[in-house]
Amino acid sequence: MTRRSAFVHRFPARAPDDVAPIEEAIRSGLLRPEGIVAVLGKTEGNGNVNDFTRAFAVRAVKDALRPHLVPQAVERISYVMSGGTEGALAPHWIVLGRTEAPAGESVSPALAVGGAHTPPLAFEDLGRMGQVRLVAEGVRAAMRDAGIDDPADVHFVQIKCPLLTAERIAAVAARGKSVAVRETLKSMGLSRGASALGVALALGEITEAEIGDDAIGRDTALYSGRASTSAGVELENHEIVVLGMSNRWAGPLAIDHAVMNDSIDVEPVRAALKRLGFRASGQLVPEERPGLVALLAKAEAGTTGRLRGRRHTMLDDSDISSTRHARAFVAGALAALVGHAEIFVSGGAEHQGPDGGGPVALIASTELIPHPTSSRGDLVS
Fold it and tell me: Which helix (H) or strand (E) holds 243?
């Protein structure tokens, strides 16, 4: 049986349309465009409804890929742009894909990457069970694309989901239907939450009987420990990326995940680093840092207005939304652990980890970790 091998490349970005590093990687042969499954990007917009840096970035990446791929292949890729690089967050791209494993490659299990696009969402379903079910089917399709049968082998699901605009709300009303919420900013949270519950349903973390329209965006006890969802105006469907470990894949890349219980709970992340082979007794030392290929995390202020008993003001700031505060805060905590701030931190963690916390995924190259301290056996079921 021919096995596949994943690739993950992280490139800095000087602006939302700075695709020069991607273009150079294609020219040099480092990046094979025909194998790309997804492009993730951190862009320096506000991360809210009117953040058009996300669509700007998607267009720039697609324009860079069109000379190398047929139109259908360009559109098949998942483009997940997360706006907001508050604090010292570094704008960057993460390109994920796959090739045929080289002959003789025996390191397995290894990172597996799969993608899927759902049909367009009927916007009366946004934030309701219709969206949950649609996403769950999309996650299952992405798992099949990755060749992952057991949900336990999925470590992270990254989703770009739609939001409501005044125009979309009017179109729903014209059909004689209603939307779950009329405030477009609040629709982002409902869409993220319903999408996350769709992940939880697909992975068996919760059952459909536990969810209902009234629970979405309200019942913080319901969540996925492996979902990361980001809402944007630039799409009407869901673009889904599944990352896991599989014995059907080979190569130097491995993934693990952790769940932060609050915004400064870095010890589960440190434990995941150790499982991947890093020493991680303090901040990663410079020679270890190249081995951490990508770090993805969710950030949320939580609903209580307190962090470990102390009051914070993230929810009370009328000038800067709490998601922007949370991105900067969590990025700082994680940067102190890994030694840099080129981290994919997405704000708004409704039903993604416990209230005030969030899931984290770490992708490592065992070839680049000096003297790895562990093997991969525990990363696959």
Answer: strand 239-246
